[in-house]
């Protein structure tokens, strides 16, 4: 790090990896940045899922306001870094779309066809084509703020463990194929809970509805206080983003059902999640 900083007069370091105070590499990088008088920022982007809008906004703000020159990196300097380089090009007011797209090419060691920067760029370029517009920094900012959708519909959410069968996906989605075994003999009522909030509008939701196999399972109570969320999220509104529901299993025959969540935003718009796992009901 010291050599790169000295040769390029770096003033800010942006790590696109999740901060890991428990890991030597993170503690070492942060300590060295402080010793060199650098501003150091962490944006915990996932390697494979489309980036969350709050992460993209944070990255945009840093690209536009942080002391320059800026060093941006991920683990291998290709996928997440390529996405960040695309954003830097789209925000500089000078680069063309073609120049931005080149940031996720073999020249920069991007070898995966689904590298996260590629669908991100394609979504923006497709929107420009669909609306008959050409790229400008102002149009990119508008698209990011008003049109961009991540895989979670710009809603960050999590479902708590179901009857002790633990899962954990910190970015809000679960792996396809997760199956949860629910036995009627262990209780005729199924309790579900979790938390959810609107990352685009940085606000709470109007409501959460649970679907099993596309069929309504029940409207959840929303607005439950979750003080522990303050450790992970800066917005105090999110502390009241908890939800819970408890309903009898009698309306469902034995079998397996996709678990989905239907979210209603404060403006009345709705988004239904893809399958967040499967619940298999049996005797």
Give Rg in angstroms. Answer: 21 Å
Span between N and C termini?
A: 60 Å
Strand fraction equals 25-35%
What is the count of helical runs? 7
- Shape verdict: globular
Q: What is the CATH homology-level superfamily of the largest domain?
A: Protein tyrosine phosphatase superfamily
Report the sheet with the most strands, covering strand number, pairing sense and barrel closure.
6 strands, mixed
Q: Which class of the largest domain in CATH terms?
A: Alpha Beta
Structural description of this entry:
The protein is an alpha+beta fold. It folds into 2 domains: 2-147, Protein-Tyrosine Phosphatase, Chain A, CATH 3.90.190; 155-282, Immunoglobulins (Immunoglobulin-like), CATH 2.60.40. Helix content is 27%, strand content 25%. The protein has 7 helices and 13 strands. The protein has helices at 2-8, 24-35, 53-65, 79-91, 97-101, 117-131, 137-147; strands at 12-15, 39-42, 70-73, 155-159, 179-183, 189-198, 207-212, 215-219, 221-224, 242-248, 255-264, 270-272, 278-282. Strands 5, 7, 8, 11, 12 and 13 form a 6-stranded mixed β-sheet that branches. The chain has a 4-stranded antiparallel β-sheet with strand order 4-6-10-9, with no helix packed on it. It has a 3-stranded parallel β-sheet with strand order 2-1-3, sandwiched between helices. A hairpin with a 2-residue loop joins β7 (207-212) and β8 (215-219). The longest helix is centred in the middle third of the chain and has 15 residues, at 117-131. Residues 168-177 have low confidence and may be disordered.
